[in-house]
Write a structure and sequence with these properties.
The protein contains 9 helices and 11 strands. The chain is of the alpha/beta class. A hairpin with a 3-residue loop joins β10 and β11.
Length: 375
């Protein structure tokens, strides 16, 4: 006997009720009533899976009872099969217009009644299966929509994270992410210098700082009580109110927060690298400027030395030549000394020419360094 499928029989004829019960009770639990009013009273406590309803009843007739059932949100899903001693087209149309699931005419064969009840049973089973599938689909749909909403929140945060350029802004953005997930927690970000610890209660609160310092070395992700901690090299995220009563939502939050914390860690590392690169570039720029200044000083000093050397050489040559006339030298001696002075002067000029080349090289190097500093 399929106890899950219960049948109510409503008929004012006791013989008909006995026949129907006798036919069905071997396979189904059956309860019979002689009036619509008795059936309604029983429906207040029990819910059958099928009602076999006589049309011509004393007091409230079958059609009126049917309409009352269908107007009740708690009873409208119960299928009704009309039972009548009249097989006129008008009677069947009236049953159809009323909305009954089937129509059976008295007298009927037991096989016909059983077959129609089994059809109704299959219909109910299919409807329940469909309802369960719809409910499951709606549940999955709600989960998907919720997950998409939660993922959308995460994606919005990650897109904004790219433009955040300091530790304060990043910590505030991560705290705002927790707020959008209806979570309470503490964020600590670590750049160079003192870490920044932030929560809805304030900045660098001693107790929160001490707790974060205690848990930041406890592993990448761990939980205790309703708290969850996500640790990365430059960020620690501690959640104080995990929704443990909703395991699915809680699991999705863990994944989203882990992704967010890892993104923050990467952004902090990038900012640190950018800062170090900026300082390195500034150092290089300063070094280039110092080298350029030194070269310019060497260039100017070399230029001054070259000019002074030229004057000295010319003066020395004139002094030597004038001295030859006073020494009373022979022609050969004077010619020898003139040649010797000439050779010396030629070598000095060659050295000065090399100095000019060096000067030009220094000037070119100075210009190149200047271009580097500007770039």
């Amino acid at each position: 006997m399929e106890s899950a499928f219960k049948v109510f029989v409503v008929d004012d004829d006791p013989a008909v009720r006995d026949i129907i019960c006798a036919i069905l009770e071997e396979e189904y639990p059956v309860q019979s009533f002689e009036s619509a009013e008795e059936c309604l009273a029983a429906l207040a406590e029990k819910r059958p899976d099928l009602i076999l309803l006589d049309i011509n009843l004393p007091g409230m007739n079958g059609y009126t009872l049917y309409r009352q059932l269908k107007n009740d949100s708690q009873l409208r899903q119960i299928p009704v099969m009309f039972v009548s001693g009249h097989d006129s087209p008008e009677e069947r149309i009236a049953g159809y217009d009323a909305g009954g699931e089937d129509f059976i005419v008295k007298p009927f064969e037991p096989e016909e009644l059983l077959r129609k009840v089994k059809v109704a049973q299959n219909m109910v089973r299919n409807q329940r299966t469909l309802a369960e599938q719809i409910e499951e689909a709606e549940h999955l749909s709600s989960l998907v929509i919720a997950s998409m909403d939660e993922t959308g929140i995460l994606l919005q945060f990650m897109s904004k994270l790219i433009a955040m350029d300091n530790a304060q802004e990043i910590a505030e953005g991560l705290l705002e992410l927790l707020h959008r997930y209806r979570l309470d927690g503490v964020v600590q970000v670590r750049m160079e210098g003192e870490p920044l610890t932030l929560s809805a209660a304030g900045t660098n609160l001693p107790l929160e700082v001490s707790v974060i310092e205690h848990v930041r070395d406890q592993g990448r992700i761990f939980e205790f009580s309703r708290r969850s901690v996500h640790n990365f090299e430059r960020v620690t995220l501690m959640i104080n109110n995990l929704p443990l009563d909703d395991p699915d939502y809680c699991g999705r939050l863990r994944d989203h927060l882990s992704v967010a914390a890892q993104g923050v860690d990467s952004r902090l590392k990038a900012l640190l690298a950018e800062e170090r690169s900026r300082r390195t570039q500034e150092g290089i720029q300063q070094a280039l400027e110092n080298v350029g200044n030194t070269i310019m000083e060497l260039h100017e000093a070399h230029k001054e030395n070259a000019e002074a050397s030229s004057v000295l050489i010319v003066g020395l040559q004139e002094t030597l030549l004038n001295s030859f006339y006073k020494l009373g030298l022979t022609d050969n001696q004077e010619k020898f000394l003139q040649n010797m002075v000439g050779d010396f002067m030629t070598r000095m000029v060659e050295l000065l020419d090399r100095g000019i080349q060096t000067q030009d090289a220094l000037r070119l190097l100075s210009n190149q360094l200047s271009d580097l500093r500007q770039n």
